[in-house]
Design goal:
mainly alpha; 11 helices; 75% helix; globular
Length: 323
């Protein structure tokens, strides 16, 4: 195929989720509620950890970064998905599609590595408590975070390098509400069998392998915790269960979307919604509802904000003039 066909298709038509007006309204209300709750919940965790000195520890430093990443995940595809619900022609440009895939896999790859770092943090805290603060110093945590972002970027760029110059000269309809590599590759005017295998190897097998490594690691940590009879073991078990729940929620949809042998099933759309919207919403709930200290710190932060606003109002020029 000659190079002249490479730029024939300059935009893609997203088929979205449904054409029913009633269902669109319902989805709009649900998605908007989940989106706002997700962003506010994750930002609240970040602010609580920043402004409360009780949470200036390695575990909460990593948790704050996970919440920042989840905020990013919520903002990559969800706002456009909500906006497109009432659009008749859901169109995205070729460059916009590539940019969306880049951010999805950069942030997703970073979160994958960060979850491994959080598992290592729990291993050190439980198995080597006397050396915990020495091993997981701020410098080490920052370095591990930089490594996570670097791997996430490499993971994304490595996949884009294979697909960015694909020729598109015919069909341009994606049966989805956002751009991702599996749907993107299938529209190319060339044999994409090898590319599909590369994407599965890069995203699918890496997700599957990382998931099993994390599960085995947490099982080892749980066995170690069970051997302890101290009062702190129940708190450790609660923290570990929260981490394991987040790992399952994050990797479950990724593994099915990229490794599942029947990619045309409608379950893909549900899993995409779950990964882009529900998981970032659930993470703050999982970490705060199981953590009394976090809930109390959020209450203190809320009281400080209310007190500050009340103090500002009492000393405002308008209020001073009226008095």
């Amino acid at each position: 195929m000659d190079g002249g066909n490479h730029s024939v298709v300059s935009e893609f038509l997203l088929l979205g989720l449904t054409n029913s007006w009633e269902i669109q309204i319902l989805l709009f209300l649900c998605f908007t509620m989940f989106y706002i709750a997700s962003v506010l919940g994750n930002l609240l965790i970040v602010l609580t950890i920043i402004f409360d000195h009780h949470f200036h520890s390695p575990m909460y430093f990593l948790l704050a970064n996970l919440s920042l990443i989840d905020t990013g995940v919520s903002n990559i595809a969800t706002p456009r998905m909500v906006y497109d619900l009432f659009r008749k022609h859901k169109v995205i440009s070729l460059k916009g599609c590539i940019a969306q895939m880049f951010f999805i896999h950069s942030v997703g790859g970073t979160e994958m590595v960060l979850l491994i770092v959080m598992a290592y943090d729990r291993y050190v805290a439980i198995c080597k408590p006397l050396h915990y603060l020495t091993i997981m110093s701020l410098r080490v945590c920052t370095s591990l975070l930089a490594v996570a972002w670097t791997i996430g970027l490499i993971h994304s760029v490595a996949q884009l390098a294979f697909v960015v110059n694909l020729p598109f000269c015919g069909p341009n309809k994606m049966d989805s509400f956002y751009c991702d590599f599996p749907q993107f590759i299938k529209l190319a005017c060339t044999d994409t069998y090898r590319l599909e295998f590369l994407i599965i190897a890069n995203s699918g097998f890496i997700s599957l392998g990382t998931f099993f490594i994390l599960i085995v690691s947490y099982i080892f940590i749980l066995v170690t915790v069970r051997k302890h009879t101290s009062g702190g073991s129940s708190k450790a078990l609660s923290t570990l269960s929260a981490h394991i729940t987040v790992v399952v929620l994050f990797f479950g949809p990724c593994i099915i979307v990229y490794v599942w042998p029947f990619p045309t099933l409608p379950i893909d759309k549900f899993l995409a919604i779950f990964d882009a919207l529900i998981t970032p919403f659930l993470n703050p709930i999982i970490y705060t509802f199981r953590n009394k200290e976090m809930k109390e710190a959020m209450k203190r932060l809320f009281c400080k904000v209310v007190s500050f606003r009340k103090h500002s109002f009492m000393h405002s020029p308008r209020n001073s003039d009226s008095s």
